[in-house]
Amino acid sequence: MTTSNPRRAERSNAKSRLWLAAGIMAVATTCRAPDREPPPSGEPGQVTGELGGGILVSAAASLTDAFDDLATAFEASHRGVDVVLNLAGSSALREQILDGAPVDVFASADHANMDRVVESGAVSGGPWIFARNRLQIAVPRGNPSGVTGLSDLADSGRLIGLCAAAVPCGDFARRSLAKAGVTAALDTDEPDVRALLTKIELGELDAGITYVTDVLSAEGRVAGIEIPESENVVIDYPIARLAAAPNAEAASAFISFVRSEEGRVILERLGFVAP
Amino acid sequence: MVEGALNAGGLQARIVLQRSETFTLDVDLSIPPGRTAALLGPNGAGKSTAVAALAGLLPIDSGRVALGSGVLDDPREGRFVLPERRRVGVVFQDYFLFPHLSVMKNVCFGPRSRGVDRSASRARAGRWIRSLRLEGLEERRPGDLSGGQAQRVALARALATDPDLLLLDEPLSALDITTRTQLRRTLAEHLDGFRGPRLLITHDPTEAFLLADEIHIIEEGRITQTGSAEDIRLRPRSTYAADLGGTNLLRGTARGGEVDMGTHVLHIADHDLTGPVLLTLRPAAISVHLVHPEGSFRNTWLTRITRVETLGHRARLLTGAPLPLTVEVTREAREELGLVPGSEVWLALKATEIGVQPGISAKEPGRG
Amino acid sequence: MKPAPRFRGRRPVRRPPGLLLALGGLGLALFIVPFVGLLARTPWSDLPRLLSGEVATSALRLSLIASISSTGVALVLGVPLAWLLARVDFPGRALLRALVILPLVLPPVVGGAALLFAVGRRGLLGGPLEQATGLILPFSLGGVILATTFVSMPFLVITVEGALRSMDRRYEDAAATLGAGRWTVLRRVTLPLIAPSLAAGLLLTWARAFGEFGATVTFAGNLQGRTQTLPLAIFVALESDRDTAVAISLLMVVVSLLVLVTLRERWWKAL
Predict the structure, then answer these.
(1) Domain co-membership, A198 together with A222
(2) CA gap B264, B241 in Å, rounded
(3) C-chain residue closest to B107, CA distance
(4) Quick check: do A and C touch, 3+ CB pairs under 8 A?
(5) What CATH architecture applies to the domain C51-270?
(6) What is chain A's Cα-based Rg?
(7) Best residue in C216, C234, C239, C250 to probe A by mutation, most A CBs within 10 Å?
(8) Residues spanned by the domain of A78
(9) Domain range annotation of chain C
(10) Using one digit for the tens of pLDDT, what is the confidence trace for B130-178?
(11) Beta-carbon neighbour count of residue A227 at 10 Å?
(12) Does this complex have an ipTM over 0.90?
């Protein structure tokens, strides 16, 4: 339980698809799981006594590395707690929660998805912005097609990929393009940012728009081209404790940790900006 | 390339073909045109292998297969004619009529495959269909035919290709007794009408005796005897051949009118013969007595009956030591004498009734 | 007690044993309940609008083109391959057969990734291919067809190979003795004899190609109107527009049922 690998194995579309399928089949007529405890409000409370059990944290795909590190650090100081990460596109995670999946903590890559969860009354603590991100153009190492800015993405001779519009990364990318007045010559809408990044890394795509943190996480396998302030978009990451959380205490503790100084250091190391 | 059918000569085949570690076919077949030869033998003797070799479905290891003036298979000269180029018509044991084609299309198949155009093929097929009395069945599928009809279609299909050699692999064995008898006649007719050589493969001696001019007995890959039906019946050279006619066959060493069988000595008429011999004893020639018989019998001996089989008005008795034999008496005689398994009897046989053939065949098919 | 058996024709008609009924019923429920769930969630009043929209119509068009093309490619390449595996004894045949079955065993995404490594732009063959012809397979309809063929062709090969192995070859022998050369035998005897199995294989191939997702999204990407087949459209819509997702799912179910039911009757009547 001390390495981040078991969690990496759990992340990915396979698991979230399984949740999705199970959720839809069993809850087709939108029943909701009943609340397990009366929803506490306001700030996460004090950690009282020994914490134990597991918490299920649904986090946006672009938070993969960040939450891997955060979870490891949290478990180191809270030995009794086991953090399980469920990583996927924010909209997929939102749907799972609305379908009644037993999630303790939700960290979204945009406001829209978090707002929908809040509106449905599923949130009992938060949401709080815990980090910020920016967009960057990702190109294969060595920038083989010589991309210099957003306007190059309109070139139909290049292979351009974005995240699907329904995913926050895709939504923000389109806003940025709109700001720059560019119509991208799109060749694929990848279902999540990791898939997009992989194709860029492999050189199958000439360019795509991802988060700064994603480019950094690729550790040199992918190169980043700056998007100027005037064309860029600021992305807020909200985190919340869910009303139906099976382990509300540990959930609150985890959220506190993420928002603490220690958490901030971890996030900044990966390229996130303090809120 | 083989010449056309009508002026072709007969079949000259020397086939040596190893099928497995333990089985090699080694036969010599010579069939003149217009004659029917039968290859008669038990299952596993190599009959189907011979068919496959003649049809070109299996290449021979050594020897030579020639039909008329053309060579079909000669390993030494490196000649091999593909089955589709040989003009060998085969009627297979289970017919293998193409189930997805109508009777007419089945019979047309050969001519069409050889490039004859549709109307000419249909005309030719139609003649054979009429000849084999299959009118009205042209559009039927093989699945809707009776056994007898299917057999005739298979024959028509093979004949429609106008072959130089006709091979019939157990053509009647899939049929019931009544149909078989009817079809035997049809088959005989059409065989007679066929101008080339014909080879009939069968394990049924009646079929061979009735349809063939010459019979080759094949056992364990070798031909053990060749001759007419009479020859085989009266002078069998192996136990199998003997069983076909129901004769007793024994081996011994002759010297001065006596033949030493090991367990017993028999007296024969010929006193000059010396050396290994094959003796044939007709079951009906051996008489059975309850007491020591008197008379001119040179051979009498005491034995015990081991089994009794009744066939209509006849009874066949199997006797044990010193000489295991089949003896035939009338049913009435058996009843009168009260002969049952275990009965002790005296057998009597005149020396003149014992058939003697000098020499022993190349392999010894032992009596089981 | 038990009702007396009724007689229909020659055989007495009796009620199936209770346990069999119960277990069989449960098995049936496993298949039916998800469809019932789908039907319950269907936005019936909105259906016409959703199904006539761009997303649904272009996805349907692409799915049909891709699945039918895949089936065609599988037929042209798969039958000869099956023939080689069944009839020709060559070294490494067992290995080759295992390779052909591999796409059935591997997760489709792995198949898609393998295709990328082989014929992607930076792939082993893809690079030279692009240099020589300018052809880029990923992110194109051709890529979709390649991906779906990769995962569905094994069905055809396995079915046809099995049929070729189990057919009685003496029909072919008979045809040869009648004067048919090898092509004639293949055309007029062998293929017609295995026709039912061939038809079943083609049907399975089409069905698999129609429903393919993992290899397609990994290799060909996802772009509405160019590479977004029905399964991809559903997957994307599930996250943002549930109603569209359900509508398209229903569309897939209906099309599949139509094809499977009608073709099954026609082609299997010979059996």
Answers:
(1) yes
(2) 23
(3) C178
(4) yes
(5) Orthogonal Bundle (1.10)
(6) 19
(7) C239
(8) 6-132+236-269
(9) 51-270
(10) 999 999 999 999 999 998 899 999 999 999 999 999 999 998 888 887 7
(11) 22
(12) no
